[in-house]
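thread: overnight batch results

M.L. [08:02]
morning all. the overnight job finished for the chain we discussed friday. pasting input first so we're all looking at the same thing
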Amino acid sequence: MWANDEHGSVKRLLDRTGDPRKPALGTIARDEVSIASARGKVILCALFSHAPRNLLNGDKIVPDELFGDGTHEVMLRIVRPRVSELGSMIGNRLLHPSVDVAPSRLVRECNDEGALASHGIDRASQRALRQGGQSDVETFLKRRAEVLEEWIVQFVDARAEWERPDTPPVKALVQRKKAS
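M.L. [08:03]
and the structure it wrote out:
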């Protein structure tokens, strides 16, 4: 009865998974997320979709080179986590190869506006980080979290097809009716 019924199998699988709801992603850059998790991998893909550039030389960061040794030291902490409530969240992480310069210094000293923008950092955010006070660092992290949240939501929405129907195509319905 279920042999060779691909659409029926998919329908039964979808019925078992429940009602597909769009996940709440509005605060994802303010959540603690492991890049080893599925959610973390989606975040990495969203960040890569903006073609991040090396803050030292402006070169595009190539995933194969960045992940050559796994995901260890791929998402560098910009400031010490205890400096801010947002310190342990994705907005405080920089997708960048590890270099002999502290990530916060990379951001503070970068003069390439395009390279900064490829990491979700505008000049006002950079100025806030340069100021270095606790409220300035908080401002930097909040502004960056807002940008990254928008990037992640747009990335997921563009690929998820939330409103697409899960029903089988008409051809499959007609073939099923013929077989009975």
